[in-house]
Design a protein that fits this description.
Radius of gyration: 32 Å
Number of helices: 7
Helix content: 10-25%
Structural class: mainly beta
Strand content: 35-45%
Largest sheet: 10 strands, antiparallel
Distance between the termini: 96 Å
Shape: elongated
Length: about 450
């Protein structure tokens, strides 16, 4: 009997273990804290400011993050000092992030009884708003005022993008990339005021107000925060970024130019959008200086009879190999005679990519004059083909017959034409500087897409 009891007991224990191991685990969130359990302090420093302009916000609840929305800005700091320049009532909204969820606390209204305009009497506040008691309007830069190429620029997030320290990777002319005139809403303008308060409004071209709010310029952090109104941006970019209002990076702010960076946050990955604005007053009064455009050196070259052929081939009975410049400046967009890239990094990962780098190491084209024919041999990543080419001297065009210059099926930059154009070349220095061969032309932008070939 004793042995039987032991066996039965063992089976019971095993059954309990199996039931226990198969039971689903259940979890539950903590209950949200009651408002009365969340403590904070909001005090006005009447010693610093008799009018109560200086307000100290302090979170005194451990384990809870408070977000302060204090009208002129937002903060999640445990202790935040706010300085109101203008008298008035300010309602501070407080949101608590707890282990049990979000708790909206009762707003607190404080009263400032005197102006302290020293908080906005600064050259940067003046540049943005026109100064205390004034207001100033800004429009998107269309690229015609001598300040920027167009309404927007791109900057790599792995590089420094700070006040007066940034290098755009690309600056399309005129409209933002892929934005129509309807997206741009040309004619709209935004106004920053210091007349009675830090007010911001956005207007249609006819002056109709479409947004009405406030703003705060942090002159030390060089950031701009807006409430109730948003900086001008094209319709097709609105969904690409999640923060259009809080602590926007101010990169440039002068009397005539404003440049603001907003980080892209959609599925395309992080990238800095730089929005370029020009003072409306400056734009309205701007008179363009009529001069000959400063074109890239070597753009649209003129050749003596037979000179281009000699450049390509080295002369009668000779041949010359040209390599794709994978380590220097392999691609460029030459718009209105002016290029913008400075190297492969200028368009890396959206134009030039790792596949292009691999291909460029073993892609070349050889032009020669043999047997009374104009021949070319083309290596595409090690695959060699050949054919006959012709030259149209009047337009600097090279016809490759049935072939293209090169191919990369993983890239949208993949050339599709067999007639290429010498867009840039140096009649005397081509041995050192190479040639730029255009594979497509955008008539709307007067822009050539070119590949840079050099002599190895």
């Amino acid at each position: 009997m004793k042995n039987i009891k032991l066996v039965i007991t063992s089976f019971l224990m095993l059954a309990l273990m199996l039931v226990s191991s198969c039971s689903p685990e259940t979890f539950s969130l903590d209950e949200p804290l009651a408002k009365s359990d969340i403590h904070y302090e909001i005090t006005q420093d009447f010693v610093v400011d008799p009018g109560g302009n200086t307000v100290i916000l302090k979170n005194t609840t451990p384990g809870v993050v408070l977000t302060w929305d204090y009208v002129t800005g937002k903060s999640s700091k445990a202790t935040e000092t706010v300085k109101y320049a203008f008298k008035g009532n300010y309602t501070i909204k407080i949101t608590a992030v707890t282990g049990g969820g979000i708790v909206e606390l009762d707003p607190v209204t404080i009263t400032v009884t005197k102006d302290n305009l020293s908080y906005v009497n600064d050259p940067l506040w003046t540049a943005l708003s026109g100064g205390v008691g004034k207001k100033k309007s800004w429009i998107a830069d269309n690229g015609k005022y001598g300040l920027a190429q167009g309404a927007m620029s791109y900057a790599d997030p792995s590089t420094v993008v700070e006040w007066n320290k940034f290098t755009p990777n690309w600056e399309p002319a005129g409209n933002a990339n892929s934005s129509s005139d309807a997206d741009m809403h040309w004619g709209r303008y935004m106004t920053f005021s210091l007349d009675g308060g830090p007010f911001m409004t956005v207007h249609e071209a006819d002056g109709t107000t479409i947004q009405n709010g406030s703003y705060f310029l942090d002159i030390n952090a060089h950031t701009l925060t807006t409430t109730g109104a948003t900086i001008l941006r094209p319709d097709n970019y609105i969904a690409n970024a999640s923060n259009w209002n809080n602590s926007l990076k101010v990169l440039t702010l002068t009397e005539n130019q404003l440049r603001i960076a907003v980080l892209r946050t959609n599925s395309e990955g992080q990238w800095w959008y730089i929005w370029n604005f020009v003072s409306k007053d400056y734009a309205d009064k701007y008179v363009p200086v009529v001069t000959d455009p400063v074109l890239d050196e070597g753009f649209n070259p003129t050749f003596a009879p037979g000179e281009l052929l000699t450049m390509l081939t080295g002369g009668t009975g000779a041949g010359r190999v040209w390599n794709l410049d994978g380590k220097g400046n392999p691609v460029d967009w030459v718009g209105k005679g002016i290029g913008w890239t400075t190297g492969a990094s200028s368009s890396y990962n959206w134009g030039w990519n790792d596949d292009w780098t691999a291909i460029s190491g073993n892609s070349w084209i050889r032009f020669d004059q043999w047997g009374g024919k104009l021949n070319y041999t083309r290596s595409q990543n090690g695959v060699v083909t050949s054919g006959i080419f012709t030259i149209k001297a009047a337009t600097n065009e090279i016809d490759l017959g049935g072939e293209t210059l090169l191919q990369n099926s993983t890239s949208w930059m993949n050339p599709t034409v067999n007639v290429i154009k010498v867009v840039k070349a140096y009649n005397k220095d081509y041995l050192q500087k190479g040639i730029w061969l255009g594979t497509s032309y955008d008539t709307s932008k007067d822009e050539w897409f070119v590949f840079h070939y050099i002599i190895p």
